[in-house]
Amino acid sequence: MAPDYEQLMEDLRTGKRESFSVDPDNFMAFHDAYMSYEYRKRIIGMAGLDGHVIYHFDKDGKATN
């Protein structure tokens, strides 16, 4: 079962979490949650190894890695 990506994105927005990663097997579940998330334009992904993507929240228009 895929993680609750909507909650993970909300945790990024509220500062409860700095980042989270998505593996290739769960990407479509993440994508569905991402497309319906109100603040999706502020969720920034950085490609990692083997198809993993690490997401963080863009605070004040500046990417925070």
UniProtKB/TrEMBL annotation:
It comes from the Bacteria. This is Uncharacterized protein.
